[in-house]
Amino acid sequence: MSDRLFFPVIETERLALKPLVKEDAAKLLGIFSDPEVMQYWNTAPWSKMEDALDFIQHCEDAMRRQESLVLGIFLKSTAELVGKCMLFSFHRESRRAEIGFGLCRSCWGKGYIYEAGQALIHYGFDSLGLRRLEAEIDPANKASAKALQKLGFAQEGLLRQRWEVDGVVSDSALYGRLVTDPT
Ligand SMILES: CC(C)(COP(=O)(O)OP(=O)(O)OC[C@H]1O[C@@H](n2cnc3c(N)ncnc32)[C@H](O)[C@@H]1OP(=O)(O)O)[C@@H](O)C(=O)NCCC(=O)NCCS
């Protein structure tokens, strides 16, 4: 597959989705050090610049290996970085990957993830040739569950007590969407 496919710029009405660069680190740290944003994440909130820089480098390496696609979410109106969305855990033979999102607190509830998610899903199916997308979320994360359902995902399972982060144990709800599912 062409290298360029894993470094796209995807535009929607209000958003530009594009690969993160080192210069995005400070803004990214601001978003993902917020305990509210990270409440249902399977890692603790970021605490230092190195966390953001390591993440950006790790993403670039994984994208070069065509193992994941991680894109910053930028507002077209201000060019501000407001979050990230990703396709990861690619299984090439089965043509499936996982999807994930994170948005700064001040941008929740504005339909941005619906807009970014639709574009990312279409890119995964149409350009990367995927057949199935999966998502794993904390069932208590109502915003995420609602956003996934709106994006055409169905809940397919529940894994009990799957995670323990900072001593807090939580379940995982598994969601899936097929390329053949109605949108
Ligand atoms: C989960 C998250 C990505 C949703 O993004 P968002 O841009 O706020 O979602 P949208 O505005 O596109 O909303 C999609 C749907 O979910 C609903 N929704 C959003 N937040 C909600 C909430 N807190 N409770 C219930 N429903 C909610 C919206 O109303 C909308 O449905 P509607 O159009 O029928 O009204 C965002 O809240 C976030 O980044 N949270 C922190 C990180 C996280 O938990 N990521 C998920 C792990 S993969």
TrEMBL record:
InterPro entries: Acyl_CoA_acyltransferase, GNAT_dom, N-acetyltransferase. Residues 15-181 form the N-acetyltransferase domain. This is GNAT family N-acetyltransferase.
